[in-house]
Design brief:
The structure is a homodimer. By secondary structure, the first copy, chain A, is of the alpha/beta class. In chain A, 41% of the residues lie in helices and 22% in strands. Chain A is built from eleven helices and twelve strands. In chain A, helix 1 (5-17) packs across helix 2 (20-27), helix 2 packs across helix 3 (31-45) and helix 5 packs across helix 11 (277-296). The first copy, chain A, binds a DNA duplex through residues 4, 6, 19-21, 29-33, 35-37, 39-40, 52-57.
DNA sequence: TCCTTGATATAACCGCCGGTTATGGATGTG
DNA sequence: CACATCCATAACCGGCGGTTATATCAAGGA
């Protein structure tokens, strides 16, 4: 019923060369393959496209009718590929676990369209299990993720540096404190990211700071809603960045600073081997916005 | 590199339905097959065309760019198929062993273009080994052939009925006669059509009229040139229709009537199961031209 | 005359594509 | 909480799109 555009290219090559052998050479395929494909095309269309003779091939009536259509279709496909390439050059696919928030994305986006009017940002929510938010599989051009991230394949600019809080149900014994130390939490059950998150999971369990003390993982969490429910129902505690506190401020959960934990770092990351021009300007704009912000409101 | 138009149709279906499942239903394929094909298309183009969500699919930037191109290509292919169908409706492929000659083809062709201005005759020379001149393999719509022909699958109109002559080298003992009888030829070596010609081979050996007398086949012949050479060099004799005599009148061969052989019949034949409108009018015109001719020059 | 050359067709083979069914996981809903 | 819906994945299978090797045939040259 339908045709492979490749077969149309084959057909046009034979129509141009009027020779299967030479056409096969220009197409870099073997002559039998070309003959077979053309025969299949003829069988499919129920018409003969060429009159084979010992001297070569001649176009039949149907063949000459087909030529202009085939040319238009091949040209259209070339145009389509070019258009897609252009579109992909001016499109940035951004991965993120939760929205980066912090009012950074709207501002950068506004600046970006001012700089490149035909630029388009495509946002993609990605599962917490995917630590690189699509960078690893090349599904995204850049991603808002929390450190740590392996340095060699990835590069990044800092978006925010925020203290780590611990979230717990309002009824928790520690809930009355002003703040806590990590030592207060060592025996508490914790919520953890999926195992596939690797070092990131360890980071939000403060595994390094715990030293030899083991951590008790109460459950795995895959999105904010799940996390809120698990914390509120007392299943376990959970570390989170101060900037994400508003998402949890819903009454059943209270959050306390953990005094002796280093702040967490939210970055815009990308793959060092994949840095198209638009990404470059986007990164520049992000750095710029963040920079101006840290000046106006220094911590 | 190139695309199958089918995949573009698949893509358009998903773009229209914004759902893989529903699109698969409208396409009468399974949903996994559709998903796989779209993924393959995305991999090939190195862009993602849809954003999959639990609620269904949304077009990505690249996807919306592709839509108009895909629509144009699909439409173009539909148009091409329609054009080919129209062309094949107004094209008649004629098979023939040697040109039918007798001034019939030019006249019928002239009348045909007068009746159907966009009609086109496509002539196809075909090997003598193919007794039906392409009718059997459906390679031709009609063919100029000599009887006999099996009646059930084929039908025909008579183009010419001509006495059979025998051709021999000028040096042959019989060459001085005014005419010969079959009895004079019984011991002579004859040239024969290839075995695959079947009953037609027998006919031009006058096998039936020979009765029990065996025929001595000197060689097989595949075209006029070969035949002329074989006759002229004395390899064997050969029967031929009077109308084809001019082709052999070149000095080294003489032709004599065979008194007691029935005349041969040249017909325009076609397959009874394949008789498109244009063929019908062509047959009518042929019959008409022949009819008028037999009236003006009765034998 | 024979051999070579160059054209297309045929055959046997093989990996991958394009379909199938079965199944699982995520999401919204009564 | 069960259920329906939607998309993804897996395993499987026939056929397509390529390969090399070979046949056939027409044309041309020593």
């Amino acid at each position: 019923m339908d045709v492979h555009v490749r077969d149309l290219r084959y057909f046009l090559a034979v129509a141009r060369e009027l020779s299967f052998t030479r056409a096969a050479e220009t197409l870099y395929i073997s002559q039998p393959a070309l003959s077979k494909q053309i025969r299949a095309l003829e069988r499919q269309l129920r018409v003969s496209l060429f009159a084979r003779e010992s001297t070569g091939a001649r176009l039949s009536r149907a063949g000459s009718e087909l030529v202009p259509f085939a040319e238009r279709m091949v040209a259209e496909w070339e145009a389509a590929k070019a258009a897609l390439a252009r579109a992909s050059d001016s499109t940035l696919v951004l991965g993120m676990h939760t929205s980066p928030g912090r009012r950074v994305l709207p501002e950068v986006r506004a600046r970006l369209v001012a700089a490149c009017p035909d630029a388009v940002l495509e946002l993609r929510q990605v599962a917490w299990a995917d630590r690189t938010a699509g960078l690893a599989e090349r599904a995204t051009d850049a991603a808002f993720v929390w450190l740590p991230l392996p340095q060699p394949p990835y590069r990044w600019v800092t978006i925010a540096r925020e203290p780590r809080l611990v979230a717990m149900a309002t009824g928790h014994p520690l809930a009355g404190r002003e703040s806590v130390a990590l030592a207060d939490l060592l025996d508490e059950p914790f919520l953890a990211l999926p195992a596939s998150a690797g070092p990131l999971r360890d980071y939000w369990l403060a595994l390094e700071e715990r030293g030899t003390n083991p951590v008790q993982v109460a459950a795995e969490i895959n999105d904010t809603e799940e996390t809120y429910e698990a914390v509120a129902s007392g299943i376990g505690l959970c570390l989170l960045a101060a900037g994400n506190a508003p998402i949890f401020a819903r009454g059943d959960v209270i959050m306390l600073p953990v005094r002796d934990l280093s702040p967490a770092e939210l970055v815009l990351a990308w793959h060092e081997r994949h840095c198209p021009p638009l990404l470059e300007t986007f990164v520049g704009l992000c750095a710029d916005v963040v920079d101006r912000r840290t000046k106006t409101e220094p911590t």
